[in-house]
Amino acid sequence: MTTNGIHSIEEKRKEENSKEKSSSSSNINKYKKNIVNDSCVDSLQLTANDSCDDDLQNIAEFYNENIGALTPYGLEVLADYAKDMSKDLIIFAMKKALEANVRNIKYIKGILNSWSKKGIKTLIEAQKEDENFRNKTSVKEESEEEKKARKIKELEESIKNGSS
């Protein structure tokens, strides 16, 4: 392939990425105009609404940059969670999805629903829950290791006793 062909392909990729980002931004702006976000609407102060718009923008940007192009449905889902949960908590859920290498809105919803059922509303609470989950998992792994070691020891003893 010629260098012109390579440059042409790179230019097309850059153009497609910029189209995706501008499309997502336009979806966010359209959605902002149509959504009535109870936690953000303050008839006395428009700045509260601006702050929530910024939070939604930050959430959408994180999704676009780390997970993929945010669809209008995905934006609607994240906006619904943003009514009751902080931007940091939603972004943390997306980070958990990335760590699990599951890059889709369904998995993120599962994490957020789990936290909601447990009454988790802050990033600190979510981090504690995550730490507790990791500790439970590591304890289970240790018991599995202990089981294996015990079975090996039993087999060795039965072989030793069988040959005596």
Count up the domains. Answer: 2
The number of distinct β-strands equals 0
Most strands sheet: none
Helicity, in percent? over 70%
The coarse overall form would be: elongated
Average of per-residue pLDDT values: 78
The SS-based structural class is mainly alpha
Q: Which band does the percent of strand residues land in?
A: under 5%
Q: What's the alpha carbon Rg, rounded to whole Å?
A: 24 Å
N/C terminus separation: 73 Å
- Helix/strand order, N-terminal first: HHHHHH
Indicate the low-confidence ranges by residue numbers.
33-48
User: How many separate helices?
Assistant: 6
Give descriptors for this structure.
single chain, 164 residues, mainly alpha, 6 helices, 81% helix, 0% strand
Outline the structure in words.
The protein folds into 2 domains: 3-121, no CATH class; 122-164. Residues 33-48 have low confidence and may be disordered. The protein has 6 helices and no strands. With 164 residues, the protein is mainly α. Helices cover 81% and strands 0% of the residues.
